[in-house]
């Protein structure tokens, strides 16, 4: 209960912060983007990860205001990087189910882009496969509207949500992120490898970028590359870090 109260005050007290995790092109190791990940700098408990408060934020509806802050902050950062002369990078923001089903989402995204004069193609919105599949017709309309704004769309945690392929074909998405669950024990010739291959083939057929995430070992990286993933993300290549520590130079060893 105390935490609900504190969560309600956290925005006004500027206790939220975004960390950024790099994403790299497989093969070349060129930096391909960053994922913005929310952290709560709690005055007594220290830095809290979403696992500690996102459910609460979702249940209380506070996620709507928090999510609006996340979108605005990511766009503000994109502009700051541009003004520092950084090369244009795409930044991905995660959307929760409640945000995704909220009628104001498209307006909120448009407002954040305009407020910071951000080219829409530099913003990627990640929704999980299960969120996208909750109400297929409604999701389709929202994704079409977001796509019309010019932002890019990524289906997160892919492989866990029972997508109908017919539906997936109609979605205006740009990217599939293979769920970490298929990567954690990935080995050549394994069942997970067959699943990754199938997702890569699906991505190729639908012209979607396929991202392997949760890459923690050299072996996982090699198998994901061999199987044809387009991009890679994970602790091996770069952890989520505060913006001051985010590196634009140097490519990862992909
Ligand atoms: O950063 P971390 O690995 O702890 O994130 C855990 C979960 O929280 C992930 O599923 C991630 O997508 C989610 N998450 C991270 N940042 C945000 C955010 O800004 N908004 C929402 N809705 N979820 C987030
Ligand atoms: O659900 P989503 O894919 O948005 O989750 C992103 C979360 O995954 C972030 O909280 C991030 O901290 C975490 N993450 C990123 N890379 C790795 C990794 O290599 N291993 C593990 N276990 N978690 C990771
Ligand atoms: Mn994500
Ligand atoms: Na994911």
TrEMBL record:
- Sorted alphabetically, which keywords does the UniProt record give? Membrane, Transmembrane, Transmembrane helix
The coiled-coil segments of this chain are: none
Q: Where is the EAL domain?
A: 1-254
Source domain of life is Bacteria
Q: This chain belongs to which protein, by name?
A: Bifunctional diguanylate cyclase/phosphodiesterase
């Amino acid at each position: 209960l105390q935490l609900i109260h504190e969560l309600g005050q956290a925005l006004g007290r500027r206790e939220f912060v975004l960390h950024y995790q790099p994403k790299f092109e497989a093969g070349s190791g060129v930096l391909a983007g960053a994922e913005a990940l929310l952290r709560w700098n709690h005055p007594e408990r220290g830095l809290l990860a979403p696992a500690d408060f996102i459910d609460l934020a979702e249940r209380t509806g506070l996620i709507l205001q928090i999510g609006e802050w996340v979108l605005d902050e990511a766009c503000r950062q994109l502009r700051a990087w541009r003004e520092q002369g950084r090369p244009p990078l795409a930044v991905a923001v995660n959307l929760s189910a409640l945000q995704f089903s909220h009628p104001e989402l498209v307006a909120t995204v448009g407002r954040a882009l305009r407020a910071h004069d951000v080219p829409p193609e530099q913003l990627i919105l990640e929704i999980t496969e299960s969120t996208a599949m909750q109400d297929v017709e409604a999701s389709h309309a929202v994704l079409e509207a977001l796509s019309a704004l010019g932002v890019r769309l990524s289906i997160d945690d892919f492989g866990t949500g029972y997508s109908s392929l017919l539906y997936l074909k109609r979605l205006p998405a740009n990217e599939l992120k293979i769920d970490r669950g298929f990567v954690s024990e990935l080995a050549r010739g394994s069942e997970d490898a067959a699943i990754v291959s199938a997702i890569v083939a699906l991505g190729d057929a639908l012209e979607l970028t396929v991202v392997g995430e949760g890459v923690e070992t050299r072996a996982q990286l090699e198998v994901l590359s061999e199987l044809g993933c387009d991009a890679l993300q994970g602790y091996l290549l770069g952890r989520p870090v505060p913006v001051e520590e985010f590196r634009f130079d140097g490519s990862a060893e992909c």
